[in-house]
Amino acid sequence: MPTVHSATYDLLRRRGMTTVFGNPGSNELPFLKNFPGDFRYILGLHEGVVVGMADGFALASGAPALVNLHAAAGSGNAMGALTNAWYSHSPLVLTAGQQARSMIGVESMLANVDAPQLPRPLVKWSYEPSCPEDVPRALSQAIHTANLPARGPVYVSIPHDDWGHEVSEETALLSEREVTSAALPSDAQLRTLAERLNAARHPVLVLGPDVDAYGANGLAVALAERLNAPAWVAPSASRCPFPTRHACFRGVLPAAIQGISDRLAGHDLIVVIGAPVFRYHQYAPGRYLPEGAKLIHITCDMQEAARAPMGDALVGDIYAMLDQLVPHVRQSGRARPEPQAAPEPQVDPEGMLTPETVFDVMNAVAPEDAIYVKESTSTVTAFWERVEMRHPGSYFFPAAGGLGFGLPAAVGVQLACPERRVIGVIGDGSANYAITALWSAAQYRIPVVFVILKNGTYGALRWFSRLLNAEDAPGLDVPGLDFCALAKGYGVEAVAVSARHDFEAALQAALADDRPRVIEVSTTTIEP
Ligand SMILES: Cc1ncc(Cn2c(C)c(CCOP(=O)(O)OP(=O)(O)O)sc2=O)c(N)n1
Ligand SMILES: [Ca+2]
């Protein structure tokens, strides 16, 4: 007779979920025993690293990823990383070991009291099966829930004395299921949408992370070229949905209400695709829309559509909708937008580099299909201006701004995409939230190039402190960090540089290596 243990591994195998990201406790050992030879376990030394690696892996592979955490304390450590996974529509299946069923009520050690409540509201679904026999079905429901639109993380708490229980032969039916969605508007809805685009005098596209997640970058280019319209990236960009040297490309919108209206002034139709409307950040009240503008929102997420403060919305599969829409959009007679001018090189002060120079060198040296995992908050604008990104899946940034994403997500992305090189571009503040990811990179020989921009401060907070008139706030500097010593302590070779040619040589050497490397670059601080 099959058991909960054998049925679960059969189900995971059938779904291709044979990589387990985890950090174990005693509650997890009955799940991990007799670990099948065709599975691999990627250990993270902190649950924030575990979920960050799984998040990068799921976002880059486009498939659900399995996470196995320790009960309450482990799941609690993962909540920061879950904020990003929730907003990036990351299909993570989090499992957490629970105390034995008879020991939960007395709240013995390692009991996850009221377990399904713990990860909310950062999961689509959260559950603890009412009996051992229901565990395989619950995991099947978790996998399909994570993967159906809008995709997102789910959580299943499993008592450790369930794994040996026998289950019915019928459980095998779970592994045969195919559950897919085909959310397409009606022909009439698509034609109405096309007519609005064809009638617009000055349309503009605002493209978000779900264009990249659905692999619809090429369709976004086709739409922009049909319309001869400028294409902005939606604010707080967590992915790159459009080639950044295309003539229509205009950069990333500011994350401020009035700032967006100012940038889009003069357009009569704003078409937002694959992003919420909008992921504002700094509080800068103003008009939601420029004078005379209407907004249409195309999204895979009904919550995004429902909560927007203005405009019309259409919910469906981003790729399928654009694929059906583009042929109905007439070729515009407007002139194609002019490409943006390349930014001027910066002059570096003695003994350090400007982030702009770092990015100019990175753009010159890195492979054209490199993948960037970014988490240096004050250098985002300079990065998008100077580093060219052409292909889908080229950029990942924490979708909720929850730091501690960059280092582990870079490891997960590289694990998912061994054929491309991953470069982590991490601030010296952010690097500390999940620094133990370096250990996992070393242990599993995952050749990420970690570039740590060392400006000795929380640069973005310096800017915010001026905006919020709190310049005397304490705790905004991070002096005295030695990332070479830290990296070596976790088994990763590292070098510190402060001159252009040294950084260039170090980056070339790191890209030629099949082991992870850290490059600590002394940089100035720039105003975001
Ligand atoms: C988990 C967590 N803690 C604290 C913050 C607050 N925070 C912090 C601490 C920032 C500074 C990051 O500094 P950095 O060195 O990584 O990058 P820059 O110097 O380029 O800003 S930006 C920001 O929002 C956060 N976003 N997430
Ligand atoms: Ca910094």
TrEMBL record:
Superkingdom, natural source: Bacteria
Domain Thiamine pyrophosphate enzyme TPP-binding: 384-521
One Pfam family named in its UniProt record: TPP_enzyme_C
Domain Thiamine pyrophosphate enzyme central: 191-325
SUPFAM superfamilies in the cross-refs: DHS-like NAD/FAD-binding domain, Thiamin diphosphate-binding fold (THDP-binding)
CDD domains recorded: TPP_BFDC, TPP_PYR_POX_like
Region (Disordered): 331-350
MF GO annotations: acetolactate synthase activity; flavin adenine dinucleotide binding; magnesium ion binding; thiamine pyrophosphate binding
One GO BP annotation of this record: carboxylic acid metabolic process
Keyword entries, A-Z: Thiamine pyrophosphate
Chain ranges of the Thiamine pyrophosphate enzyme N-terminal TPP-binding domain: 3-108
Keyword Phosphoprotein: no
PROSITE patterns in UniProt: TPP_ENZYMES
Gene3D superfamilies in UniProt: 3.40.50.970, TPP-binding domain
The family this protein is said to belong to: Belongs to the TPP enzyme family.
PANTHER family in the record: BENZOYLFORMATE DECARBOXYLASE, THIAMINE PYROPHOSPHATE ENZYMES
Name listed for the protein in its UniProt record: Benzoylformate decarboxylase
The species this protein was found in: Chromohalobacter marismortui
